[in-house]
Amino acid sequence: MKSLILLLCLAQLWGCHSAPHGPELTFRRLNCDDPETEQAAQAAVDYINSHLLQGYKHTLNQIDKVKVWPRRPFGEIFELEIDTLETTCHVLDPTPLANCSVRQLVEHAVEGDCDLRILKQDGKFSVTFAKCDSSPDSAEDVRKVCPDCPLLAPLNDSRVVHAVEAALAAFNAQSNGSYFQLVEISRAQLVPLPVSTRVEFAVAATDCVAKEVTDPAKCNLLAEKQYGFCKATITEKLGQEEVAVTCTLFQTQPVVPQPQTDGTDAIASTSAPVDPPASVSPPASPPAASLVVGPMVVATHRRPPLHRAHYDLRHAFSGVASVESASGEMFHWGKSPPVAQPGVAGPAGPVVPPCPGRIRYFKV
């Protein structure tokens, strides 16, 4: 009898532990190419570019995975994995992302890989967590497409640093306006034939006049920042160097007491020729990235990262924590509870096509 009572107690105790303590959260699975998924992904790309302080803007190439979780008491959380590609627009360039060209494979493309959580509430998307990294295409893959194309070179290579210094000196020598200082070396390639070095770099105007500079160390960046982006090729010919450099200056940016993250006060413009700079009015709907990256870029290191050939996206989000983690909500990321698919009444219902979604440009 005692054994029976003990068995019943154990059964009740087991039932208490196994019973669910609350409603089980389920996610709904969307098609990676669903318009709603693409809206979330575009919000993610905008967020990524608004946080970049160095290098080039990225654009969406492919949506790898998507899960949509309910968020209490309102809204939903989109859990996304996306692939991006580097464009030819520098982060300081106010050109809208839609007008930026994707860096091609023959130019040694760079791919980004990002995991994000995006809150959708009242029809608006906002990123609550972001983790990214990026890497150039492999040398083997580049050689398959173009055997003679140059690869990315380390940004701190002595030949690269020399090429940038020579190009910037040539640019300032030809300028009738401000003396420009180097902000960053953005990209470099060593070309075997003809022996030359291709570089791309960002510059900023100072309070010195280019024709009158005697000590560049005494020149200070302007309060109203004006940035530019340069491309140059230094070619070796018969023991001498031939310097070819072209720069594009962007409209000056007014002094902003404190950078805003919502992009409501963003200032941008189309680019103007270098010499002399043209006066350009800002567009009616400027890109939000201009305000975020412009005033902040002066705080970045001018020296190229050691032996790196590009600016890794992972450094744009180091230390970024999830906003949802402080909300008191219970999300068990990584687990896979029963899937709630929209419009599915039972096993015979329609099946959402699997991810990943379409490739917009090319696979790296």
TrEMBL record:
GO terms for cellular component: blood microparticle; extracellular matrix; Golgi apparatus. One of its GO terms (biological process) is ossification. One of its GO terms (molecular function) is cysteine-type endopeptidase inhibitor activity. Residues 1-18 form the signal peptide. Residues 274-286 have a biased composition (Pro residues). SMART domains: CY. Residues 256-286 are annotated as: Disordered. InterPro entries: Cystatin_dom, Cystatin_Fetuin_A, Cystatin_sf, Kininogen_Fetuin_HRG, Prot_inh_fetuin_CS. Keywords: Disulfide bond, Glycoprotein, Mineral balance, Phosphoprotein, Repeat, Secreted, Signal. It is found in: Secreted. Residues 20-133, 144-255 form the Cystatin fetuin-A-type domain. Gene3D superfamilies: 3.10.450.10. Promotes endocytosis, possesses opsonic properties and influences the mineral phase of bone. Shows affinity for calcium and barium ions. Alpha-2-HS glycoprotein derives from this precursor, when the connecting peptide is cleaved off. The two chains A and B are held together by a single disulfide bond. This is Alpha-2-HS-glycoprotein.
